[in-house]
UniProtKB/TrEMBL annotation:
NCBIfam families: cydB. Belongs to the cytochrome ubiquinol oxidase subunit 2 family. The keyword Metal-binding applies. It is a multi-pass membrane protein. Its main location: membrane. PANTHER family: CYTOCHROME BD-I UBIQUINOL OXIDASE SUBUNIT 2, CYTOCHROME BD2 SUBUNIT II. It is found in: Cell membrane. Keywords: Cell membrane, Electron transport, Heme, Iron, Membrane, Metal-binding, Transmembrane, Transmembrane helix, Transport. Pfam families: Cyt_bd_oxida_II. This is Cytochrome d ubiquinol oxidase subunit II.
Length: 334
């Protein structure tokens, strides 16, 4: 059972990387109406993630592809049961990506404002719906003996799932605003730091309630420890933001999101999807995984390419590490 357990952990790693990296992308997109006072401000905000947003999104493609290859039963149940939700996420991501590419194609103010609204919507929708998806995975679904979801779309929007969606939405928003304060200067940086403080209080309350409910209903010793560590990391991020140490605040906010996602995967182990209607229909790592040979081949591929991906990602962030200012954006337009 070593390889199935290993790939369960790797799937958790890939989704954790996605939520940490694309999480602040979503947060920056959601911050447009709150931090910008004119078009130059909006261009500054968009340029903070301009070189990296598409690279960040590739993590969900890698996670989905690895899930398909290593746990085909799990993949099939999730993508069929959450079909409409996944479709909404996909459409929102397409809307957001198109908006990034097309908003600057015409100087018309109305044209840009419409695409800015689509960036906001395309950031809010996936930030909320990903929380709904993972909250349902942790809570469990009604499954038949063939691991098919037998509930309705409305069943997926239960109170616990909505709470999970609000938690990811708010955590991503704070994560993105802190990233803005890290990557900008002047008035936007000051506004972002203040907004991160106010939004951080709300995110902390909602996130804490979600983690407490999760720990009471589904928690294990490991997941509870990880949840407690997430709370500590969030407090440290909040304090560092108050001190104006954006780098530390961003790092601990990333750690908060990572610990939350890892704790959710820890609540599942050794299952991957609990059947709420009949325990006999519960999907486990053992009965959902691919063959040993498939996992062995995938392991060698991952051993070669995952370090390369991480190195390339790190190199990209290093190249584009400088702050984005209004003067730079204004000069680039002439």
């Amino acid at each position: 059972m070593f390889l199935p357990d290993l790939w369960f952990c790797l799937i958790g790693l890939f989704f954790t990387g996605y939520f940490v990296l694309d999480g602040f992308d979503f947060g920056v997109g959601m911050s447009l109406p709150f931090l910008s006072k004119d078009d130059t401000d909006r261009r500054v905000l968009i340029n903070t993630i301009g070189p990296v947003w598409d690279l960040n999104e590739t993590w969900v493609i890698v996670a989905g592809a690895c899930l398909f290859a290593s746990f085909p039963e799990w993949y099939a149940t999730i993508f069929s049961g959450f079909y409409l939700i996944m479709l909404m996420i996909l459409l929102a991501l397409i809307l957001r990506g198109v908006s990034f590419e097309y908003r600057h194609q015409r100087p018309d103010h109305k044209w840009k404002r419409n695409f800015d609204r689509m960036i906001f919507i395309g950031s809010v929708v996936p930030a909320f719906l990903w929380g709904v998806v993972f909250a349902n995975i942790v809570h469990g679904l009604a499954l038949d003996k063939g691991f098919n979801y037998t509930g309705s779309l409305g069943d997926l929007f239960n109170w616990y799932a909505i709470l999970g969606g609000l938690a990811t939405l708010l955590l991503f928003f704070v994560h993105g605003v802190i990233f803005v304060s890290l990557k900008t200067d002047g008035e936007i940086r000051v506004r972002a730091r203040k907004l991160a403080t106010r939004a951080g209080v709300v995110a902390a309350v909602v996130g804490l309630v979600f983690l407490i409910v999760t720990s009471i209903q589904h928690g294990t010793m490991v997941s509870i420890i990880l949840s407690a560590a997430a709370v500590v990391a969030l407090i440290i991020a909040f304090v560092q933001n108050l001190r104006g140490r954006e780098g530390w605040a961003f790092g601990f906010m990333a750690a908060t999101i990572a610990l939350v996602i890892v704790s959710l995967f820890a609540t599942l182990f050794p299952n991957v999807l609990v059947a709420t209607n009949d325990p006999a229909h519960t999907m486990t790592i053992a009965n959902a995984s691919s063959s040993h040979y498939t996992l062995e081949v995938m392991s060698w591929i991952a051993l070669i390419f995952v370090p390369l991906i991480l190195a390339y990602q790190g190199f990209t962030y290093w190249i584009f590490r400088k702050r984005v200012t209004r003067s730079l954006v204004t000069a680039a337009s002439h």
